[in-house]
Amino acid sequence: MPESFHEQLRIDSRFLKSDRRLDTELVDKLILQLNRIYPQILTDKEASRFRDLDVPTCIRLAELLNHLQEKGEEACREFYRALHLHVEDVYFSLPTRLRLRESGEPVVPITSPKHRYVMNDHSKSGLVNHYSKQVSGSSSALGLAAMGLSRKVRDVLIWYTEDGK
């Protein structure tokens, strides 16, 4: 049975604390990812504490890793997802990932959590454009939505449905 994300983070923490690639900017991206997308894992108050530039980055990162381990399995899994998203080269250099690769086991992507999360109240997601069309009398629909967390659109969602599915 594979190790839990909690156990993996315990193993990888030493490596993460010593890796110079995790500079202030990248640590802030990880903190913001956890705070904005999963505010139940990292609240605004906690994120502010971990983003305090008066505290050296290595200490802030160590405290963040300890905090996530205290929060449990779900928080650790979301940290790995954020790390994979923002710092892929560090993610694939982790001792637990290297051990998986050396053992010949496939390194599977981190699956989405089973629960849906509500976006933080401070994020500004917006629907820019939506298009829906009936095609030749069928009940097919094509939609397009441009979404962003700031003034600039960063993501586009395109979907197609048939018969109300």
From TrEMBL:
Annotated compartments: Endoplasmic reticulum membrane; Mitochondrion membrane
Membrane topology: Single-pass membrane protein
Principal subcellular localisation of the protein: endoplasmic reticulum
GO cellular component assignments: endoplasmic reticulum membrane; mitochondrial membrane
Keyword presence, Mitochondrion: yes
Superkingdom of this protein's organism: Eukaryota
Keywords, alphabetical: Disulfide bond, Endoplasmic reticulum, Membrane, Mitochondrion, Transmembrane, Transmembrane helix
Record note on quaternary structure: Associates with BCL10 by CARD-CARD interaction.
PANTHER family xref list: CASPASE RECRUITMENT DOMAIN-CONTAINING PROTEIN 19
Protein name: Caspase recruitment domain-containing protein 19
Originating organism: Cyprinus carpio
Gene name of the record: card19
